[in-house]
């Protein structure tokens, strides 16, 4: 057995082939192949668990899989487990990638399976049974952006929470202040939650074209959402609103020093880590429930609201917003620009006002100008 022969597993003697040892060798080889493509360890672990779940559900090893096994597994995921359209599609992509790997003739897994078990691997996820990806937006329809009234009331309540904790004598006022700033930052620069969590004080700089923003005219995002198998995308986001720069400046000057040692992370915890996404989501849910807002709001709603406000509310060019959000295609940006009711109401009011102004204006003389 040599590396040149591309053999990772082979039975010896007359012993009966061990399917458990063989599938372990196959999954180990697949893990190495994915690492060579620079997939994250978390992604590799998730895919491995999915393959094992497929095996447990069907009771068949991968070289025994059929299209019928695939149909049963994914129909159960949708009909019984009620997994989302996007989740099932991602599961199917993972199983398809696994089958592509084991069926590739450049690896000898099929040859080994045929010799040991008399069966070969086949592709069980094809265009015949795969979820159709016919539109760009696969987000759940109940998810939505904040209205401007909701956003203002949320920020006011988040600020009020700090004073309520101080007045009660309880601990946690600094954490509440940090959470309030985190929510405003997510909206102020249209950031994903993970992008916002990893911001550091050194990520802000001046914008020569907007000196009135001070040292916070540009935010350098270093933890942008990557393409599959690639490094984190880096981009610069220009500061649009003066209030956002003021919020960050105030937090860095008066908030962060309360954590003791000089802290570079913008949103730290008392133990020196980064504030968790689950903590921020729980905090947001508490505020939303107290305000009695309709459902559909989550941490990503700040990013949706940012894009909607810039394009629909303030008339920014779609290309500018696309660059701010870090989208490769303008079609992706359009997902976030569906107007919420208050934007539609204002647009209708503007249209009516224009119509009335035109009706009140004196009619022009119909005579031709020589």
Automatic annotation (TrEMBL):
Taxonomy, superkingdom? Bacteria
By its UniProt entry, which Pfam families does this protein fall under?
Answer: Phage_int_SAM_4, Phage_integrase
Regarding protein family, the annotation reads:
Belongs to the 'phage' integrase family.
Question: Record keywords: DNA-binding included?
Answer: yes
- Per UniProt, residues of the Tyr recombinase domain are 141-349
Q: What is the name attached to this protein's record?
A: Site-specific integrase
Keyword DNA-binding among record annotations: yes
Q: InterPro entries in the record, alphabetically?
A: DNA_brk_join_enz, Integrase-like_cat_sf, Integrase_catalytic, Integrase_recombinase_N, Integrase_SAM-like_N, Tyrosine_recombinase_XerCD
A single Gene Ontology biological process assigned to it is:
DNA recombination
Q: Which UniProt keywords apply?
A: DNA integration, DNA recombination, DNA-binding
What is a single molecular function from GO for this protein?
DNA binding
What organism does this protein naturally occur in? Microbacterium protaetiae
């Amino acid at each position: 057995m040599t590396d040149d022969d591309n053999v990772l597993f082979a039975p010896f003697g007359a012993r009966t082939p061990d399917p458990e040892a063989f599938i372990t060798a196959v999954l180990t080889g697949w893990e190495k192949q994915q690492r060579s493509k620079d997939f994250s360890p978390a992604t590799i672990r998730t895919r491995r668990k999915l393959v094992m779940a497929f095996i447990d559900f069907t009771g068949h090893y991968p070289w025994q899989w059929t299209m019928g096994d695939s149909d049963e597994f994914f129909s159960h995921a949708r009909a019984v487990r009620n997994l989302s359209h996007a989740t099932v599609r991602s599961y199917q992509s993972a199983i398809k990638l696994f089958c592509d790997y084991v069926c590739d003739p450049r690896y000898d897994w099929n040859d080994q399976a045929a010799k040991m078990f008399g069966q070969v691997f086949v592709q069980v996820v094809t265009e015949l049974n795969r979820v159709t990806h016919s539109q760009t937006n696969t987000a759940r329809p109940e998810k939505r952006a904040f209205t401007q009234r909701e956003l203002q009331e949320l920020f006011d309540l988040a600020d009020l929470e700090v004073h309520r904790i101080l007045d009660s004598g309880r601990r946690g006022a600094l954490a509440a202040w940090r959470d309030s700033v985190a929510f405003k930052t997510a909206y102020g620069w249209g950031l994903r939650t993970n992008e916002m969590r990893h911001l550091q004080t050194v990520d802000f700089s001046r914008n020569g074209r907007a000196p009135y923003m001070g040292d916070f005219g540009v935010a350098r995002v270093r933890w942008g959402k990557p393409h599959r198998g690639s490094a984190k995308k880096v981009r610069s986001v220009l500061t649009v609103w003066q209030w956002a720069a003021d919020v960050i400046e105030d937090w860095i000057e008066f908030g962060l020093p309360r954590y003791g040692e000089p802290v570079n992370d913008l949103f730290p915890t008392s133990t020196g880590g980064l504030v968790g996404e689950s903590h921020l989501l729980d905090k947001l849910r508490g505020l939303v429930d107290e305000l009695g807002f309709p459902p559909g709001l989550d941490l990503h709603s700040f990013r949706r609201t940012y894009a909607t406000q810039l394009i629909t509310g303030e008339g920014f060019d779609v290309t500018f917003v696309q660059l701010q959000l870090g989208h490769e295609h303008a079609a992706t940006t359009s997902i976030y620009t569906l107007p919420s009711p208050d934007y539609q109401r204002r647009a209708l009011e503007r249209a009516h006002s224009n119509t009335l102004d035109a009706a009140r204006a004196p009619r022009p003389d119909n005579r031709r100008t020589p």
